C-alpha cells in the first residue's frame, strides 16, 4: 500500500466561515426529488433498458411519487430520443410531473434536444459542462474564461430555443460538472454568469445543480462548499440549489443530508443508488432517513418489497440483503440478545402503547414499508437465543413459552441449526419443538381420564381421577385421590408397577387462539431426585386433558434419561 504517496486531496475547501449547517441537527422538510434512474442510472447498466422497459419504469417512478424525472439524453441515441417522443405523443406525462432532459453545450445537441421536446407541457432542460481543474487541464486544455464561455454559450442557446416554443413551460438547469474538483469561487463565477443570462424570477426559478460527480472529500467539506454557493449565487430567491452526489467514497447519503442542511433545495439520485462506478445517491435511504426522523419524505415507499422487485426487474441488479430499508435482511435479528430485546420491545408496545416507535434495534416499524415481523425480524440460526425462539413460537404458532423453559428450548434449536449449518424457518423451529415436547406418548400414554370432586373425603379441595393408562403396550386402570387434578393423576401413576420419583415444579396453561373451539396448551415442569428438571407440553381441546398430556410428555422425557419404564 506504499502507493498511497501518489494521492493527494483534489478538492478545494472553503474554510470554517461556511459551517452554519453544523448548527442544525436534522432535516426539517423533504427536498424536491428528481429521479435520474432513466438517464444516469440507465447509462450505467451493462445492458441499458429497452424502450418498453423505460416506459414501464417511468410509470412506476410516477406511481411512487416523483414529480421530476430525468428521462434521458435525447441527442445521445435513437432510443433516448424515441423514449421522450413516445411519452409526449402518447400523453403519458401527468400534468403534475416534469420531465428533465440533459444536453451538452453544443448547438446541434441543443437543437436535437428541443426537437425531442416538441409538444411537451413542462420540461427541465439541463445544461452541463465540466469545470474542474483536471478536466480543464487534461481534457479540454482550456483556461477558465474559455470553460466559462462554453457554459454561457450553452445558456444563451437554450434561452433562444426555448423562446420559440409556445405552450411549453420550461425550467433551466445548469451543472458545473465535477463541481467537487473545481475551485469553489470559480464555480460560483461560472454559475452566476449562467444565472445572469437566464434571468430567473421567484416565479420561474433556475436550478443550479452542484454535483459530486466524483466524491473527493469528507461530507462536511461538501456541505461547506454548498453553503458557500448558497451565499454567493446571484438572485438566490430565484435559484434552486440541487445536489447530485455520487458514492465513490461511500458517503453519498451523508453528502446529500449535510448538503440539504447547508442550503440544498433539491436532490437528484436513483433508487438504491444505481449509477456510474459506485453509483448515485440512494434516494430510498435519504427519504427513509427523513421518515424515521418524523419528516414526510413525499415519496411512497410503503410497499418496499414491490420497490425492490421493480428495481431488480428494470436494472437486472440485485438489492444487497443489507441495503438500508430495502434489503432482505435489514430487519433480521439473529443475535440472541437482539432477539430478546426486540421481543420485549414488541410486548412493551402492546402493553403500554407508547405512541412513538421505540423498539430496540429496530429504527423503523417493518409494517411501515410492507414487511412482516414474523418473516423479517426474528431469524433463527446458531447465534439465536431463547427470546427469539420463544418469539417465533408465539407469533407464528401461539405457544407462550414460560420464561423458565425458554433457555432449554433455545439451546435445543441453536444446536440443530449449528449441526445442520443452516438458518431454521419458523416451521422447522416448531417441528423441532413439537417433536421434543408436545404430546409425547411413548412409552407412557394416559388414554382416558375422568375427574370428580372428592365430596366424600375430608378435603373439600380434593379431586378423584379414574384413568386408563398404557405403559409398554400394557393397559392399566386406577382410581386415586389428589389435592388437584395433576396431583391425582400423579398418585394414580404411582400405583403402577413402575417407580415414578419426581415432584412438580411449575404449571401454566393458555388457549392457543381466541376462538372458542381452539386447542389449549399446558406446560408442566417436574424435577427428579437429583434436581434435574423436565418440561412437557400438552395440547387438547379440553384444557384439563391438555394438562394431563403435558405431565405425560414430561414423564416420557424424564424416562429417556432414567429408564424407569423398561
Kindly describe this structure:
This protein is elongated. The model has no long low-confidence stretch (mean pLDDT 93). It has 3 domains: 29-315, Alpha-Beta Barrel (TIM Barrel), CATH 3.20.20.70; 336-436, no CATH class; 444-562, Alpha-isopropylmalate synthase LeuA, regulatory domain (Double Stranded RNA Binding Domain), CATH 3.30.160. It has helices at 37-43, 51-63, 78-89, 107-116, 133-140, 144-162, 184-198, 219-232, 252-261, 283-291, 304-315, 336-352, 373-376, 386-397, 403-420, 426-437, 485-493, 543-562; strands at 32-35, 68-72, 98-104, 122-130, 169-177, 206-212, 239-245, 266-269, 444-453, 463-471, 474-482, 502-511, 520-528, 533-540. The chain has 566 residues and is an alpha/beta fold. Helix content is 39%, strand content 19%. The chain has 18 helices and 14 strands. Strands 1-2-3-4-5-6-7-8 form an 8-stranded parallel beta barrel, surrounded by 8 helices. A 3-stranded antiparallel β-sheet has the order 9-10-11. Strands 12-13-14 form a 3-stranded antiparallel β-sheet. The termini are far apart. Helix 6 runs parallel beside helix 7 (184-198), helix 7 (184-198) packs across helix 8 (219-232) and helix 14 crosses helix 15.
